[in-house]
Amino acid sequence: MSLVLDAAAQDLLFREARTANTFTDEPVTDEQVQAIYDLVKYGPTAFNQSPLRVVLVRTPEARERLVKHMAEGNQAKTATAPLVAILAADNEFHEELPELFPHFPQAKDAFFAERPTRERSAALNAALQAGYFIVGVRAAGLAAGPMTGLDFAGVQKEFLDDDHTPLMVVNIGKPGTDAWFPRSPRLGYEDVITTV
In terms of Cα–Cα distance, which of 8, 43, 137, 125 is closest to 81? Predict the structure, then answer.
């Protein structure tokens, strides 16, 4: 059985998509970000908890504050990308569960009353959503440069609060000159998939 998604879409989202290291100066609009979110919000999370929160870094002042928390090798990329997004997990996501999981509003207290439980669940499910977000950026015809080389505590203090844990920073835009490193190898089917 073949995939239902046509080959061009498969290439756009996966086979030809890469982590961009340079970008043009073409802006990324709020309308593009809205379209990305309106697509990826349908990706599944446990209890529909949807804990991902996104901080868009647009102003020069905010960009400067962020760049100082990036690893040295990521600073220039973050300084020049048209748009930078800080992806974070909301550890208080359970407050939204009565609305997001209406057929079992008690889930808020039955499963997520304890902060450590919420933090583990938020980290996992926001990471799932971060993957959807990256694919959504690609679906918009843009390139994403996700990075975890950063001072997480510094980014949290600078841009978030104690209820939000940063997961990664994603540079977003149209790929620039020499944007791609050579494609790295991938594991084969038989290296990953086991049938029992």
Answer: 137
